[in-house]
Amino acid sequence: MCSKFDSVPLSTLLLGDTSDTTSNSLAQRLAKKTKKQVFVSHNIPITETNLALLIENRIKKEMELLPDKF
C-alpha cells in the first residue's frame, strides 16, 4: 500500500538474501495494481528471470479472472 508521503508502495524483506529484491518488487507492483496490501513469498532462483516473469503474469491473469478472490 502507498503511504501518504510516497506513491511507491512500502515493502520490506523479512527473511532471506537482502540483495534479492525480486519478492519486494513483485509485491510493490501488485500492490500498486490492486491498491491493496500484498504479501509475497517465493523461492525462485534469481537467475530464473523468465520464470519469475511468467509467474507474475499468471498471478495478474488470476487476479483479472477471479477478482473476488483477491
UniProtKB/TrEMBL annotation:
Indicate yes or no for the key word Ribosomal protein. Answer: no
Source domain of life is Eukaryota
Which Pfam families does the entry link to?
Answer: PAC4
Which GO cellular component terms, listed alphabetically, does the Swiss-Prot or TrEMBL entry include? proteasome complex
Keywords, alphabetical: Proteasome
Q: Which InterPro entries match?
A: PAC4
Gene Ontology BP annotations: proteasome assembly
**Is Transit peptide included in the keywords of this UniProt record?**
no
Task: Give the protein name, as stated in the record.
Answer: Proteasome assembly chaperone 4
Gene encoding this chain? PSMG4
